[in-house]
Amino acid sequence: MAKQQIIQNYINSNMAGIDLSLKNFSFTYSQSIQDINADWDIAAPDDNLFLNRTYLSLLEKNPPEGMRFCYLVFYKNQRPIGISACQIQGFNAEQSLQKKETTAEMSKTACFFTAMGNYMKSVVASKMDFDSLICGNVLLTGEHGFYFNAQEVKQNEAFKIVEEALEKMRKDLRKNGTDISVTLVKDYYTSSKVNAECLKEKRYNEFTIQPNMVMDIRPDWKTFDDYKAAMFSKYRVRVKRAAKKGQDFVKREMTAEDIEANLDLMYDLYEGIAISAGFNVAKLNKRYFLALKEALQERFILMGYYLDDKLVGFYTLIRNHHELEAHFLGFDKSKNASHQIYLNMLYDMVRTGIDEGFQKIVFARTALEIKSSVGAVAHDMFCYMRHKYNLSNKFFTPIYDYLKPDLDWQPRHPFKEE
User: Fold this and answer.
1) For residues 164 and 20, is the Cβ–Cβ distance under 8 A?
2) Is residue 160 within 8 Å of residue 200, measured between CB atoms?
3) 5 or 264, which is more confident?
4) pLDDT digits (tens, 9 = 90+) for 167-193
5) Which of 13, 69, 156, 349 is most solvent-facing, going by the fewest CB within 10 Å?
6) How far apart, in whole angstroms, are the C-alpha atoms of residue 128 and residue 187?
7) Do residues 223 and 202 both lie within one domain?
8) Same domain (yes/no): 201, 240
9) In this structure, are 69 and 42 located in the same domain?
């Protein structure tokens, strides 16, 4: 049955909800997707897997360490017209801020002022320990926090509605024993900034972290050879060199049985890369990759890289309608230089995107320069954060800016015509 027919025929039997200041608008919320009725499916978008019940359910059943969830359904005249997926995460900056070098390595390579700066960062970070309410998904980069039917709610109204609902929910959670110190609305593109101005009026601090690296796949790229032909010669040489160094790999897509048999090894490979990223808010559940495969099936790709019959690396992709989402990966860093594991993975992701006719590949954050070398372009993502206390809120963003990893990278331009 078409969604419009469902909406016309469906009337929720329990419409008490919480009223909003905008006339005839209200919302309900639950801390489990299992307790949300069919209104979620009616109001959720058709083209975003990450706001789909299937994905949210598998994430809730296999959550990152310390993560809890909230789901909001918005109503206009008692009709479901929007949804929001939120996470509650305990945040300790001292644990999340990872040094790229050990103390011993720093003593050999860092000057006195660099060492002192890192020490000061750890001191400041040790004072930042709180529960946060996140509108969005810390495992993803992009606009995955809320969605409204555009015919019912304008985009600038949507941010106002969400802000009010988050505040009402925060107060309600406090009555039930969950005291939220910080509210974060995460990852909106520059095009959404004008609509998010209302958040700044409500004392939210606007800031950016790392950009989202996104590659648009040109319509005339029908094969990987077309992609290479669009490159400058030095980048074509780079593709050839990476392929030569990676020629000993045996690559195969891993089944659910393969994943389950390699869970510990895969988690070690993932964790080694995650720690080196410098700043990590969430630590994945060890069974997350298996849950993705079991729930999403053909929409989830986990590609294993083998040397001498041993798994030395893997990457994951999620087929999200017209976008191919590069998700988490892991590899043996000791073999990266000799076999260019990571670069070969990026090229293989591009190959999949082209072969399967996707419009774009979302490579997400981190490793900005190497991603730009394969054709991804940086898109700034804006986040909005507010502390519940006015005084703390005034100092929060400067401290956060002080703690965030430095961005020191050179964008690359591999294509002859850009």
Assistant:
1) yes
2) no
3) 264
4) 999 999 999 888 898 899 999 999 999
5) 13
6) 22
7) no
8) no
9) yes
Task: Please give the structure tokens belonging to residue 128.
Answer: 């930042």
How many domains, in total, are found in the chain? Answer: 2
CA 296/CA 57 separation, integer angstroms:
11
**pLDDT tens-place string over residues 34-71:** 999 999 999 999 999 999 999 999 999 999 988 999 99
C-alpha dihedral sign at 244, 298, 329, 188: positive
Do the domain assignments include residue 88? yes
Q: Are 14 and 163 members of one domain?
A: yes
* Side chain identity at residue 333, one-letter code: K
| Tokens encoding 212 | 């989202």
